[in-house]
Amino acid sequence: MKALVDGGPGNKSWETVALPDLVDDRDAIVRVDAVTICGTDLHILKGDVPEVQPGQILGHEAVGTVVEVGTAVSGITVGSRVLVSCISGCGRCRYCRKGSYGQCVNGGGWILGHLINGTQAEFVRVPFADTSLYPLPDAVSDESALMLADIVPTAYEVGVLNGTVSPADTVAIVGAGPIGLASIMTAHLFSPARVIAIDLAPSRLEAAKHFGADVALLADEDPERAVMELTEGLGADVVIEAVGTPDTFELCTRLVRPGGHVANVGVHGKPATLHLETLWIKNVTITTGLVDTYSTSTLLQMLASGQLDTAKFITHRFHLHEMMEAYSVFADASSTGALKVALTRD
Fold first, then answer.
1. Stretch 198-211: mean pLDDT, rounded?
2. Which residues partner with 195 through β-bridges?
3. How far apart are CA 52 and CA 80, in angstroms?
4. What is the mean pLDDT of residues 82-87?
5. 64 in Cβ contact with 30 (< 8 Å)
6. SMART domains, per this entry (predicted)?
7. 144 three-state secondary structure
8. Of 2, 201, 224, 304, which alpha carbon lies 20 to 30 A from 173's?
9. Bridge partners of 126?
């Protein structure tokens, strides 16, 4: 089969590799029908995630069809159309039993495209298939479901829920890429008074308005002053960091009001300074997190009922064999306007 293989920092290739086999009796083999590229994949290719070894197949998001299951798999059968979640959970360890699947200690968590071969391939092996695959309703399209593999539950759980967005809040979201846009979309489920999007790219701020941002601010035009003016000098109730750089994290800590909440979602490859000399007195809560995907079933129900429109994240479409071109388009989002790309089976 063909797959996207990491060749070390700055190197990748679409090449022929061996088909995956069942390794454990809880595994399933899934034919990939639709897959996407994540900002985290770009971080990996930059060398920001050193656990990923050269030769690994990248990717942790897909929709596909089950073609083989292990003897211990229940609830998932050959022929099932499924969502492949970015998180695999054993369902049995102390973390999985409380819904913290991202912290699974029995070989789960974020492993696809990270610690084991991932989804940017024609077929993928999925461990813990009965607790890590989600059967899809007929009414939900492949493209819509694909956005629930990672970005929407990540934004919802690590950004909106960890940030405790509440009615009448002012929510500032730093970064209007896919995670930031998903944060805007899901923040509105809690009726905030206003949502402020901050980004360097005018095209992404336009996208933010389309996704429901009430105010769009350019990051290089003093967004701190603008947020203070909008909030009578207090700052935002919730600030969501959706980029993953020291500058954006530190900006978030300056935007939050006393008693407010900074929810970090961005993947950081470099240290950021925590200015406790100014934060200690402000009763600020800062949360970090890897998505657990405990919300995926709920989000699927919302998708099926029309409460969420996730297909609008996709701006560019390719076939699987166009993986290298898709990476070029996605990585150059400031020029191409790419939000999310979808690659489908040839």
1. 95
2. 171
3. 30
4. 98
5. yes
6. PKS_ER
7. helix
8. 304
9. 28
Residue with tokens 């024609």: 122
Supply the angle between the helices 323-331 and 39-46 in degrees, to the nearest 10.
Answer: 90
Closest C-alpha to 89, from 70, 108, 72:
108
Here the tokens at position 111 are 């492993």
The answer to whether 306 and 332 are in contact (CB under 8 A) is no
Q: Do the first three CATH levels of 2-150+292-344 and 153-287 match, i.e. the same topology?
A: no
Residue 285 half-sphere exposure, CB side, CA atoms within 13 Å? 12
Find the mean pLDDT for residues 323-341.
94
167 confidence band (pLDDT: 50, 70, 90): very high
DSSP code of 154?
H
CATH topology of domain 153-287: Rossmann fold (3.40.50)
Identify each DSSP E strand in the chain by its residue range. Answer: 2-6, 12-16, 28-35, 62-69, 81-84, 123-126, 133-135, 170-174, 194-199, 215-218, 236-241, 256-264, 285-287, 314-319, 340-344
Match domain 2-150+292-344 to its CATH number in 3.90.180.10, 3.50.50.60, 3.30.420.40, 3.20.10.10: 3.90.180.10
Q: Which residue has the tokens 């402020």?
A: 196
Exposure of 299 in the CB half-sphere (CA atoms within 13 A): 26
String of DSSP letters for 208-221: HHHTT-SEEEETTS
Q: Where are the domains of the chain?
A: 2-150+292-344, 153-287
Q: Provide the β-strand partners of residue 286.
A: 262
R_g of the chain computed on alpha carbons:
20
